[in-house]
Amino acid sequence: MKTRITDLFGIEHPIIQGGMHYVGFAELAAAVSNAGGLGTITGLTLKTPENLAAEIARCREMTDKPFAVNLTFLPTVTSPDYPGFVRAIIEGGVPIVETAGRNPEPVLPALKDAGIKVIHKCTSVRHALKAQAIGCDAVSVDGFECGGHPGEDDIPNMILLPRAADELSIPFVASGGMADGRSLVASLALGADGINMGTRFIATQEAPVHNNVKQAILTATELDTRLVMRPLRNTERVLINPAVQRLLDKEQRLGQKLKFEDIRDEVVGIYPKVMAEGQTDAGAWSCGMVAGLIHDIPTCRELLGRIMAQAEEIMNRWI
Questions:
Q1: pLDDT at 77
Q2: Where do the domains of the chain lie, and which CATH numbers do they carry?
């Protein structure tokens, strides 16, 4: 299948594995790319530019296909060494960068001068238009269904995707609720050029996370996620567990008086405990509503092959 996204990134299938904290390591990125999609290493998970450079080199040993690095720009007290991360990406010959969070404009000149394609994650049409205006090559449009940060507008993909198609001239992929060939065909019908999947890729053989995490996703339904940190305007969709319930109780009790310090125990330092150690009740961790559509743990090659076969069957049947 050829779309503007496959042409832009030089990939076989219009399927991207988005950056995920403590999930997007070389093993998963290479497996997705080898299966014909676009795998992504999560830059900030590696903590330092030197570690990122080593992870890029490790990924290159596992695939000769294009892969990306995610750089998320966060409001933090101590900012990561973003110039160092950008240098590691450029020197590592990475052809694609997925940016997220705050406006990536400060790093675009260096990336563009190196010939790197940039896709920016957006949760609204206005943010997507801004990304287009500053020179991003593509955007990932994240609907309300998505795991992680869905923004504050609460617009689901049935509305958000056609709105984006009406406004944008650059290619875009649909993110949030994507799991199978039905997701891909629906996204294409709504105007997208492909799909971005996160939660679905955690439940794969190659995802380097504890099996408890994969089993938690398989056990979950579409009813088992919650929105947290909304009073702080940093909304995140996470899988429900006792720690998340404590967090929600604090939010309800404190209301607009809630401060980040009040929920620190439930959100800080959680991902290594969950993803590496399998402590799935340790705190809040991102998970999409799409968990309700995930029922197995295939290899990435099996998953992408199945998605494309189902998509082609649907299109042949109805189009």
A1: 59
A2: 4-208 (3.20.20.70), 221-286 (no CATH)
